[in-house]
Design a protein that fits this description.
The protein has 230 residues and is an alpha+beta fold. The protein contains 7 helices and 7 strands; from the N terminus they run E-E-E-E-E-H-H-H-H-H-H-E-E-H.
């Protein structure tokens, strides 16, 4: 949805050289509005108030018409995007947000994304991954993913070190596989034993790798080197 922002040239703001700034006017309400300069100035007679565009007769001394129009369009889109973003975030003062960010040269969208906190809890991410998988995989696959999560928790308890995305290196891979093969406690026919079958360990590692690849695609983190280990 495009925001109520329009291009204006104010007659009362003519400068000593006979030019006036082309500005953007944003009206949040009848009482709340702001005007932001585009940095482009032309004589009043070369501004078409009806079409809100620069006249094609603009002398070259004031700039290349095509470039000026392109710059104005970019600034207009930026202002519209800023206001739209502020409103979606329920920002109580979209005018303030617009004024604070409009004249910044840096990419405000990247800054906003960077400022948003990413949940890096490994188990929350596995839950998110599992939830997304439920609609396109069999229930037995979901059981294997949940078991993989349980194996990680068991290994974390045994190692007495919290598992994070930074934990996953070659050393972790080797220790985790060894733990699954020879040390992880579980019950089989009411008998407490240690170590999983090779097939079960293979499934755990395979789904752990798939989970990592999914998080990488979502730009949560980079793939650990052991992902490429066969």
């Amino acid at each position: 949805m495009r925001q109520p922002i329009k291009l204006i040239v104010r007659k009362g703001k003519v400068r000593n050289d006979g030019t006036a700034l082309i500005s953007l006017q944003y009206c949040y309400s009848a009482e709340q509005r702001t005007v932001l300069g585009t940095g482009i100035a032309i004589p009043l007679q070369y501004w078409n108030k009806k079409t809100r565009k620069i006249s094609k007769d603009l002398p070259a001394i004031y700039g290349n018409l095509e470039q000026l129009e392109s710059t104005i369009s970019e600034k207009l889109r930026k202002a519209e995007d800023l206001v739209e973003y502020a409103l979606k975030q329920h920002n109580s003062s979209p005018i303030k947000f617009l004024k604070e960010n409009f004249h910044l040269n840096k990419n405000w969208k990247l800054d906003q994304m960077a400022s948003q906190k990413i949940n890096l809890d490994i188990y929350d991410n596995i839950d998110d991954y599992t939830k997304a998988k439920k609609s396109n995989v069999k229930h037995c696959t979901i059981n294997v993913i949940n078991a993989m999560k349980g194996h990680l928790k068991s290994f974390e308890l045994k190692s007495k070190m919290p598992i994070t995305f930074d934990s996953f290196d070659v050393s972790f891979y080797e220790d985790f596989v060894r733990y699954l093969l020879y040390e992880i406690p579980h019950f089989r026919r009411k008998e407490s034993i240690k170590g999983l079958k090779i097939n079960t360990v293979g499934k755990t590692i395979r789904h752990l790798k798939s989970f990592f690849r999914d998080r990488m695609r979502k730009k949560i983190f980079l793939l650990p080197t052991w992902i490429h280990i066969k």
